[in-house]
Amino acid sequence: MGRRRVGLVAVCLAALVVAGCSASGGGAGGDRTGAGGGLRVVATSTQVADLAANVGGDRVQVTSLLKPGIDPHDYEPSPADIDAIAHADLVLENGVGLEAWLGDTVDSSGFDGPVVDTSQGVRLRMAGGAADPHIWQDPRNAERMAATIERGLAAAEPSAATTFQANLAAYTRQLQALDSEVQRQIDSLANKKLVTNHDAFGYYVDRYGLQLVGSVIPSFDTSAELSGRDIRDLVAEIKATRVKAILSETSLPPRTAETIGREAGVKVVTGEDALYGDTLGPRGSDGDTYLKMIRHNTRTIVRNLSGS
Amino acid sequence: MDPDLVLVLRRATVAYDRDPVVEGVDGEVAAGQSVALIGPNGAGKSTLIRAVLGLVPLTGGTIQALGRSPQAARRQVAYVPQADILDAEFPVSALQVVLMGRYPRVGWVRRPGAADRQVAARALAEVGLAERASARFGTLSGGQRQRVLLARAIAQEPRLLLLDEPFNGVDALSQDLLLAALARLRAGGAAVVMATHDLGLAHLACDEVCLLNRHQIGFGPIGTTLTPELLRATYGGQALQLRGDGVIVARP
Amino acid sequence: MNLFEPFTIPYMQRALVEVLVLGALAGAVGVLVVLRRLAFVGDALTHTVFPGVVMAHLLGRSLLLGALAFGVLTAVLLTAVGRHRRVGDDAALAILLTSFFSLGVVLISRTRGFTADLTVFLFGRVLAVDRTDLVQTLTVAAVAAIVLAALHKELVLRAFDPEATAAMGYRTGTLDLALNLLIALVVVAAVEAVGTVLVIALIVVPAAAARLLADRVGAMTALACLLGAAGGWLGLAVSYEASVDHGVRLAAGATIVVVLVGLFLLAAAVAPLRRRRAAAGGHP
User: Per the structure, how many domains does chain B have?
Assistant: First the structure.
């Protein structure tokens, strides 16, 4: 019987050592933007979080579940995320199927407050039988999303409604200015043919009159794989239409894009200079707010598509 | 059938894909009798044992154990394999191995009861290992393990006992204890069939012998059947060697 | 490091019950897998159940039923392959394992937006377990436990001495099938919690650790259950603390596996001491 006892002792020892002193450290994980205090808002994506921070100002405390650079299509919420939702006053989501994991997560957390779908009222782009979830790439959609967010905030914190309205008005003006600016810049391009890494830029392309020749990953989702024929067709298309560059994304591995670029003999833009597709950039980068992100993308596109 | 006959073989033949492994085995074993299966490697001794156990089908002839087919008679037939094929690291005690012999009687779902434990303990005592009951099976010597397996068979309270090379690599003390236990079983009315290379021990333990080399060369009382000519026919001219004490041992 | 506080939260409580039950069940079944050196077959089963899970998802049916159907199918197939397997013929098993698994991946890749689900099937999402999932797990676990208890002594006999098992009149093929079905049931129960890739660790590691410390099947089984459950509990607590107090993401399912391996190493370290004690004071 001594053997069994030793075994049990081993297990108990391990548990005791690990239990040690319980440091009940405070603070959940998650990226916070906006000043402290006020309405606790949890947003799923970095873009929605940024919009919410701008509309809410210092009357809200915004936590983003997804961090900069993380792929939103395929995400496993951590205990910190679930806790954040559990303690939230309001949850904001992008919608259009971007966050398939949100439903279960909200259920798990026991949160029974309002979950606002910021895609309400946005005209959706359809492709291949599915709706494109990357609605924020068109600043006019961002305006609608911000307005939806404002309604949600005002409903949750009526005493700050006037502040939210004022913030929304100011931000909307910035979005409209951005829209005009981008249109001007794109209009200046002679060659508007674009190849990107995945189908994240549909709304931007439609709004500003670019021509999307194709994507390396022909899907809204980042996991699909290119078949041999797809690659061949894309390379042929690139050569035939004289696309100048393939623009990759900051959050995706560039290997497939580079392979196709080599095959087709065109430049591939990767790394820091690449486009922000699925998420904002980390703090301090060139795309750490929504406005900066759109501006960065525009600059990158213009730079690579102009010239001989 | 004569109720005293435990095992009857009539021209028993086993073949795999038309290739006979052992054929034409013909003989009878009565209660209390003991038969040695003797022959070189590949002679079909193990196959014959498996046929008696009903584990391989006959392609010719018949086998009747206790008046029934081998499958039907299994409850009354016990098998003692060679101990060295078993995993020495397996976490079981000697007594637990012996207790396994009671499982068919205990049946599904239920666990062995006090009566079963008593039978098992007695069987272990029969082979002289009562004080090693709680030792892990793998910590016992080769001979001791073989004795435990015999005890397991004893615990099954069989009327027919089949052993495959029970004395291989077994120390002298264990041999004696095995022989004694087998003798007691026979005295109680069980029949014994054992495959063995050791002609000397065959003489000590058995009163009949079946000579096999893929077919039966002889089946009868050991005195008249275990003759040099028949042995030479069985072993196909392989060397027979005299041991120091004057007993003939066939080199396998 | 707090071992109790996280479990005052409802979703953590559900996760805890799930991993305690799974850990204990997988440990008990794992004892037989380890004693019969069937770890590779067990691993094959976890891979072959995968397309069943995918198909069930595609058809909108219960994942549990899909996994169960495939679990039964592949248990039968693997039993058949196993019986005709000669030494070194793991190739047949490997072919079965990879072809089924690839089938599952092919099915998944045909649809858009599937990565999230793929990750869940492979690695589980124990923190998203709801009451329905829990009830399903408990039901499957109860069925498996009943079957295991009913057949236990025969399964141990089969593991120890297959020849004698056959000689005593038991059909070893049926017993093998029963064990493979048990493994399939464990995989099915664990799919939502730790996923098909990690469940093999749950089956093998606690039992392997218990093997080092126990001299009897009974003690080995009890220890395996204890270690399996402890691994689940500690793993959840560590993953929670890392996420909430330190902002470090440690996937819950994988953390449980790492903790189990840690317990195994602990057992491996303690085992030689035990042997020395036995040699000094026990029988020669």
Answer: 1
CATH number, domain A31-183 = 3.40.50.1980
Tell me the pLDDT tens digit for each residue of C103-131: 888 887 776 555 666 777 788 888 888 88
pLDDT digits (tens, 9 = 90+) for A233-286: 888 888 888 888 888 887 777 777 888 888 888 888 887 788 898 889 888 888
Cβ-Cβ contacts under 8 Å, C246 against chain A: 25, 29
Q: What is the pLDDT of residue A21?
A: 32
Provide the domain count of chain C: 1
Contacts of A27 in chain C (CB under 8 A): 245, 247
Which candidate, C157, C143, C179, places its Cα nearest to that of B106? C157
Residue of higher predicted confidence among B192 and A306: B192
What tokens does B17 get?
């894909």
Of B74, B96, B109, the CB nearest to C150: B109
The class level of CATH for A186-305 reads alpha beta
- In angstroms, what separates the C-alpha of B50 from chain C's closest C-alpha? 8
Per-run averaged pLDDT (10 residues), chain C, 284 residues: 84 93 95 88 82 80 78 84 65 82 81 64 83 89 94 95 92 91 88 83 94 94 96 94 87 90 94 76 49
Give the helix/strand (H/E) hosting A42: strand A39-43
- Residue C47: what pLDDT? 84
Q: How many C-beta neighbours within 10 Å does residue B119 have?
A: 20
Pick the residue from chain B with its C-alpha nearest to C152: B109
- Per-residue pLDDT tens digits for B101-125: 999 999 999 999 999 999 999 999 9
Whichever domain contains B95, its CATH number is 3.40.50.300
Closest CA to C48 of C109, C114, C97: C97
Q: Which of C2, C210, C247 sits opposite A80 (nearest CB)?
A: C247
Chain C, 251 to 270: residues with Cβ < 8 Å from chain A are 251-252, 262-263, 266-267, 270
Tell me the C-alpha distance between A166 and A156, whole Å: 17
Shortest Cα distance, chain C CAs vs residue A23, angstroms: 6
- Is residue A95 pLDDT above 50, yes or no? yes
List the domain range (segments joined by +) for residue B238.
5-250
Burial (CB count within 10 angstroms: exposed 0-12, middle 13-18, buried 19+), residue B111: exposed
**Sequence ranges of chain A with CATH classification 3.40.50.1980:** 31-183, 186-305
d(CA B80, CA B174): 15
CB atoms within 10 A of CB A193: 18
